[in-house]
Amino acid sequence: MIAPHVAQQTWLHRIGAGTKLLTLAVVSILLGWTAQWLALLIACVIILGVYIVTIPAAGTRLKLYRPLLPLLVGIGLLQIYASGWEIALATLLRLVAMMALADLVTATTPMLDMMDALQPLFRLLRPLGLDERRLSLAVALMLRFIPVIMSEWGKREEAWRARTGRRPPLRLVAPFLSDVLRLADHASEALTARGFDMARSDRVDRGTR
Amino acid sequence: MQLRDLVRVSLFAALVAALGLFPRLDLPLAGGVPITLQTLGVMLAGLFLGARLGFTAVALFLFVVLLGAPLLAGGRGGLGLLFSPSAGYLIGYPVGAFVTGWVLQRTNGTGVFLRALLACLIGGVIVIHAMGIAGLAWKTGMSLQAALLADLVFVPGDLLKAVASAYLASLMPNQTVAAPRSSS
User: Which of A142, A152, A167, A198 to mutate to test the interface with B (most CBs of B within 10 A)?
Assistant: First the structure.
């Protein structure tokens, strides 16, 4: 798995996550405004230039976007047909510039900083039932469950292959889902047993704030 | 939300992520078009958790992906996705899970397979593709008709995934799927 965040420090790492997010928002509005392909070309060249200079191994990283190529080609062709090459070029340049800029922000901002920068947003969403502590518990649990799911399924797949020599059929997924659901329920029992109390964590949280 | 629900939400968010990393299930693929199994997870979240929790699970997945975890099929992640032409599909995922669960919770009678299939077709295919088409048209300035045309390539794969999800739902013991726990 290629980590989206680049651990190596770059000058962009030193800029606050909030500033970067704000810049991203402003640039997206500006680029969304103009339909001049020349202006968009300049923006695209600048952003890609910064990208290539700043990010180590920028090439490998950009390769991740290869699955999008057929779609971009398709969009370009449809646009040339429907509204002429200038609009088509402007559209493609805008897409590339914005994706590169946003990826630049992701690459130079650790996930935790990003979550911190989003705190004001979480506070706004609190009346809708969003709670930062539950959110961070959910994120942590999710990240922990991914390898569990993969290895559990891997075991079943191996066992099936050993017995039949074939790829596992779809119906093997049903008991697998039952079992991981049971696993999740065990995990919540274990959390409760270790004194994790949703109601109380709320109260403590509000008290300290 | 109860702790049990929160853990189940995390589990299905992880399942959607795992389906992007580990696409080795035996699904026939349509004509070489890359098909991610991630929408299968979206439909399953709606079917197994119901509208509200299904939405939460997929929204949690999307949140972590946008924060930068490379969990979208192909190892992509980060804010760039919001600006990609397929942003509409991604934003459609949680809505699709919600509608899938909603339809399933509001149908009764006939077997689980048919109810789940209907739910997946409406929530997992129509809703997600409609939002995807809208996003495509918005991001690229294409007309809706042109975007619809570009979208059609992905429809056969998602139809298969709807059938697969409904089949899986029909294999589950009744309480797991047919009557999702409704909790606040």
Answer: A142
Task: Supply angle C-alpha A40, A73, A48, rounded to 5.
Answer: 35
The domain of B131 spans 3-176
A85 touches chain B (CB under 8 A): no
Q: How many other C-beta atoms can be found within 10 angstroms of the C-beta atom of residue A15? A: 14
> Which among B1, B15, B69 is the nearest to A149, CB-wise?
B15
Chain B, nearest residue to A74 by Cα: B150
Residue of A106, A139, A145 lying closest to B78 (CB–CB): A106
Question: Is residue B120 within 8 Å of B97, Cβ to Cβ?
Answer: no
Q: Which residues of A129-166 are buried (b: 16+ CB within 10 A; e: fewer)?
A: eebbebbebbbebbbebbebbeebbeebbeeeeeeeee
Cβ-Cβ contacts under 8 Å, B22 against chain A: 150, 153
Euclidean distance between CA atoms B125 and B28, whole angstroms: 17
| A178 vs B: CB within 8 A | yes
Q: Which DSSP helix (H) or strand (E) runs through A65?
A: none
Answer whether residue B181 is part of any domain.
Answer: no
**Amino acid residing at A53:** V
* ipTM surpasses cut 0.85: yes
Per domain, the residue ranges of chain A are: 11-117, 124-208
Tell me whether residue B183 is in a domain.
no
Residues in A touching B168 (Cβ below 8 Å): 170-171, 173-174, 177
Check if A184 contacts B (Cβ < 8 Å): yes
Paired strand residues for B72: B76
The 10s digit of each residue's pLDDT in B36-93 is 788 999 999 999 999 999 999 999 999 998 887 778 876 677 888 888 888 899 999 9
What pTM value is reported for the model? 0.81
Which chain B residues have a beta carbon less than 8 Å from that of A138? 6, 9-10, 13, 60
Q: What is the CATH number of the domain that holds B12?
A: 1.10.1760.20
